[in-house]
Each structure stands twice: as structure tokens, then as C-alpha cells.
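Incident log, support desk, overnight shift.

02:14 A customer reports that sequence design results differ from what the structure should imply. Their input is reproduced verbatim below. On-call engineer (initials T.W.) acknowledged and began investigating.
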């Protein structure tokens, strides 16, 4: 967690993100850490996250965002639908840049998806229900739920791609 916070602060200081993005990212990281604490306290039940699968990112103009990240950071563009969204791959994860919906008040992180080891759809659904968390099936390889602060969290298998 300390490493993540240091990286976020470094990116902010280098102008790679604005203050709003920094605060949203710090809040998301804190929420993820807080959500993990009860799992450890409850006898280790729960899941083991092994990677950030993707970050869904609502933007004013996905093409402008696509060109920025591809040009500056060398992210590989894929799944570009030519009108609304694309994937920007880096390492084993990707940004999902989407034009903001009509009700959005500006650029924001829509949700973060975490890949867990040993994906089992029925076990994931049962554990979310055991914790009285909403469990919305998104694909056969992922569920959406809410963390304690109301952020959308997607729990995914390794083969899940938004």
C-alpha cells in the first residue's frame, strides 16, 4: 500500500494526474485496503487478488485519451469501437477509456476490476452473499459489487476482459 501511495504522489508531482484524479485514486486504494481487512479478520475467507485486471475510466473524449496514453506511455490500443471506447493495454492490465455518460459530472474512475486466483463463479457469488454484498453478474467471469464507500468493484477471473 505504501508503494502504491508513493507512486500516486510521484505521478501527481510529475503532472501525470490532476488533484481530482489523485484523490479518487487514493480513495479507491484506501477502500480496497479497508475491504480486505475484514476478510483477513474473518479467518482468511474471501479471495486472493493477484492483479488489477483493468481500470474503467470515463473521459470527455476517448479518442483524445487514447492518443495521449498511446503516444506518451506506449500503451497498446485494442477493442477500439471508433465511437465510444477502447482498451489501452500495459503490462498485464489495461485502461478502459470510455466517453462519459450523459449524467457524469466529468472524468472519473468508473470501477476497478481485480483478478483473483482460482476463479469459481459459484464460490464468488456465495462469498459475496455471505457478506451481504450485492453480487451483479457482469460476465461468466466477473461480478460487480460495492465496497464500504460505495465504489464499484469488479471481481474477475484471469480470462475476463471487460
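02:41 Re-run completed on a clean worker. Output:
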Amino acid at each position: 500500500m505504501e508503494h502504491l501511495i508513493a507512486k500516486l504522489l510521484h505521478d501527481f508531482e510529475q503532472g501525470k494526474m490532476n488533484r481530482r484524479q489523485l484523490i479518487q485514486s487514493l480513495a479507491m486504494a484506501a477502500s480496497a485496503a479497508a475491504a480486505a481487512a475484514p476478510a483477513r479478520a474473518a479467518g482468511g475467507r474471501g479471495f486472493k487478488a493477484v492483479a488489477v485486471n483493468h481500470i474503467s475510466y470515463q473521459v470527455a473524449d476517448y479518442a483524445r485519451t487514447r492518443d495521449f496514453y498511446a503516444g506518451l506511455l506506449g500503451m497498446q490500443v485494442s477493442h477500439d469501437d471508433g465511437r465510444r471506447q477502447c482498451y489501452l493495454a500495459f503490462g498485464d492490465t489495461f485502461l478502459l477509456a470510455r466517453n462519459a455518460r450523459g449524467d457524469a459530472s466529468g472524468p472519473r474512475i468508473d470501477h476497478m476490476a481485480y483478478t483473483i486466483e482460482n476463479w469459481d463463479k459459484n464460490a464468488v457469488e456465495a462469498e459475496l452473499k455471505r457478506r451481504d454484498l450485492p453480487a451483479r453478474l457482469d460476465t461468466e467471469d466477473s461480478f460487480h459489487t460495492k465496497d464500504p464507500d460505495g465504489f464499484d468493484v469488479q471481481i474477475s477471473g484471469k480470462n475476463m476482459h471487460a
